[in-house]
Fold this sequence. Notes:
It is a single chain. This protein is an alpha+beta fold. The chain is built from 7 helices and 14 strands. The protein has helices at 6-12, 17-22, 26-30, 37-42, 51-60, 184-196, 206-217; strands at 63-65, 70-74, 81-86, 91-92, 101-104, 114-117, 123-130, 138-153, 160-166, 178-180, 227-228, 234-243, 250-257, 265-276. Strands 1, 2, 3, 5, 6, 8, 11, 12 and 14 form a 9-stranded antiparallel β-sheet that branches. The longest helix is centred in the last third of the chain and has 13 residues, at 184-196. It is elongated and about 65 Å long. The two termini are 21 Å apart.
Amino acid sequence: MARTSPRDVCTLSLVCSLFRSAAEWDAVWEKFLPPDYRKILAAEDGGGGSKKEVYMRLCDYPVMIDGGNMSFWLHKPSGKKCYMLAARELSIIWGDTPRYWRWISVPDSRFAEVAELLSVCWLEVHGRINTSLLSTDTRYAAYLVYKSAPHTYGFEHHPAEVTVGLSGVESQTESQVKTVFLDPEACQRQRYEYEQTLPGRRRMGIFSHLRRLASRSNAAPPENGPSRRQDGWLEIELGEFYNGKGQEGELDMSMMEVRGGNWKGGLIIQGIEIRPEAS
């Protein structure tokens, strides 16, 4: 069992009483815990209980590390490491200028402070994490975690550019730079307008048009738009990265909107999350 995965162990425990008993052994769950889990849990005095209980606790309750500017947890199906960098841990252009950004506390953030964009024409956010902190032989995806304030503006027509790659490695070609819409409504509107240009599209009457708008409100988010998380925040994928064995360096994750030249504001950034890509 220890040579499989946490998901497989839970499945095998349903086979028979012998497997169910073995699925509770510390020797099994010790294999799924990272080697430094005791050090991670030391600050919170949460290392008690069986190894399975420790594993589940690390999956369900992120641990604050790095002075409260980073959170750590385990991906429950695989035991792979996950992190979120707080906004304070990011490099935000003009982030310390009160005219453009302000730092506030919100009750639904896991961090003490989040960054609220007041007004800028040059939006640029970078995050970095050492690949040695990540699980090896794992494909990760990075996500900007944010929300829109009621007065958000300037993102209706101009997409942002996002990239993920090893810092200092000249491998980020133009094709690896993705464009995304941070505004969910702008993304849906772009998809809708594109569909109207497809061959064979006929003019719609007013009632058909209203029905079409209603159906769009229930549609899944497009690939280049944000999705809503269970905690109520929005997330947009910045890119993917495969962390192989012996591959060390700093992973650079960025989001920029500098081409439009228009003023924009209203985003509230909680941080950047790095987690294994869903299989």
